[in-house]
UniProtKB/TrEMBL annotation:
Belongs to the TUBGCP family. It comes from the Eukaryota. Pfam families: GCP_N_terminal. It comes from Dendroctonus ponderosae. This is Gamma-tubulin complex component. Residues 11-233 form the Gamma tubulin complex component protein N-terminal domain. Transmembrane segments: none annotated. Signal peptide: none annotated. PANTHER family: GAMMA TUBULIN COMPLEX PROTEIN (PTHR19302), GAMMA-TUBULIN COMPLEX COMPONENT 6 (PTHR19302:SF70). It is found in: Cytoplasm, Cytoskeleton, Microtubule organizing center. GO terms for biological process: cytoplasmic microtubule organization; meiotic cell cycle; microtubule nucleation; mitotic cell cycle; spindle assembly. Keywords: Cytoplasm, Cytoskeleton, Microtubule. GO terms for molecular function: gamma-tubulin binding; microtubule minus-end binding. GO terms for cellular component: gamma-tubulin complex; microtubule; spindle pole.
Length: 274
C-alpha cells in the first residue's frame, strides 16, 4: 500500500494526507525491521514469539486498519483524504491498549500535522490555500472569486460539510469566517499592519498537539503573538465605538458652529447699536 507505483512514481491514491500516511507506515516498518533483526539468532521460537508479541499485535492492528493482508476483503479499500483522517481518528479513540495507541498516534500525528500546516495555517494566516486534491473543507467557488460585490464575501468560499474532520466540526464556522476576513483584508488593504505582522512573523499559532506540554507551548506562542499584534495594530476595532466617536465629533463641530454664530450675532448687534 505504501509503495510507489514503479511507472508513475506516485502513491495509489492522490492527496497529502494519504501520502503522509504512507510515509508514516514506512517509518514504522523500518522500526519493525530494526527491532526484529536486533534479536539474537540463537533464540528459541517460544522466546522469539514472546519478545515480538507486542510488535505482532501492532502489525496486525495496522494491517487491519489499513485493510491489507490475508484477512482483508477484496472489496475493501483504504480511504484517503479527510475520510482517511476521520477513520484514523475514530480508530485511535476506539483503542484501549497503550502501546497500540502510541503506534497509531505516531501515524495519525503526521497526517493531522500536514492538514494543519498545509491547509488550516495557510487559510487562517494568509486567507488562501493550495488544495489540488480537494482535501480541505473550505471550498472556493470559482465563479464568485472575481466578483467585487457582496457575493464575494457570502459565496466565494463555502464549507464542504461532508469532508469536515471530526475534530474540527465545532470550529468549522469560525475557521471559515476567520479565513474570509484575512482574505478580504489582504484584497482590500494588503499594507494593513495586521497583514504585515502575519506575513512578517508567520507566527506558530496552529499546530497539532498530542501532549499537554506541546499544548502549553502553543498557548504561550499564541498569547505572545496576540500581544505583539495588538501593540502593532492597535486596539480592536469596534463599530459601536466608531459611531460614538463620529457622534462626538459631530456634536463638537455643531457646538463650534453655534459659538461662531453667537459671536457673529453679537458683533452685528454691536454695529447696529452704534
Amino acid at each position: 500500500m505504501s509503495a510507489l507505483n514503479p511507472t508513475t512514481r506516485k502513491h495509489k491514491y492522490p492527496g497529502y494526507v494519504f501520502a503522509e500516511l504512507c510515509e508514516s507506515i514506512c517509518r514504522y516498518l523500518q522500526f519493525y525491521h530494526t527491532a526484529v533483526i536486533s534479536i539474537h539468532d540463537n533464540i528459541h521460537f517460544l522466546d522469539f514469539h514472546e519478545k515480538t508479541r507486542q510488535i505482532q499485535a501492532q502489525v496486525t492492528t495496522l494491517a487491519t486498519i489499513c485493510k491489507v493482508g490475508p484477512s482483508a476483503s477484496e472489496t475493501e479499500q483504504t480511504q484517503h483524504g479527510v475520510v482517511l483522517l476521520n477513520y484514523l481518528y475514530q480508530k485511535v479513540l476506539g483503542l484501549s491498549d497503550k502501546n497500540l495507541c502510541n503506534v497509531l498516534y505516531s501515524i495519525l500525528y503526521p497526517c493531522c500535522q500536514i492538514y494543519f500546516s498545509r491547509f488550516l495555517h495557510q487559510w487562517l494566516i494568509k486567507g488562501t490555500f493550495n488544495d489540488p486534491h480537494g482535501e480541505f473543507f473550505v471550498n472556493p467557488t470559482r465563479k464568485y472569486l472575481t466578483t467585487r460585490c457582496r457575493t464575494y464575501w457570502t459565496r466565494s468560499y463555502e464549507i464542504k460539510e461532508d469532508i469536515v474532520p471530526d475534530f474540527l466540526v465545532n470550529l468549522k464556522d469560525q475557521i471559515l469566517v476567520c479565513g474570509r476576513l484575512i482574505n478580504l483584508l489582504q484584497l482590500c488593504n494588503p499594507g494593513n499592519n495586521l497583514c504585515a505582522c502575519l506575513i512578517g512573523k508567520n507566527p506558530l499559532v496552529l499546530t497539532c498537539c498530542i501532549t499537554r506540554d506541546k499544548l502549553t507551548q502553543l498557548e504561550q506562542s499564541a498569547s505572545k503573538y496576540y500581544l505583539e499584534a495588538s501593540m502593532q495594530c492597535g486596539s480592536k476595532f469596534s463599530f459601536t465605538r466608531y459611531l460614538e466617536r463620529s457622534r462626538e465629533s459631530d456634536i463638537t463641530y455643531l457646538q463650534l458652529i453655534a459659538k461662531k454664530r453667537a459671536v457673529t450675532l453679537r458683533r452685528l448687534e454691536c454695529k447696529l447699536i452704534n
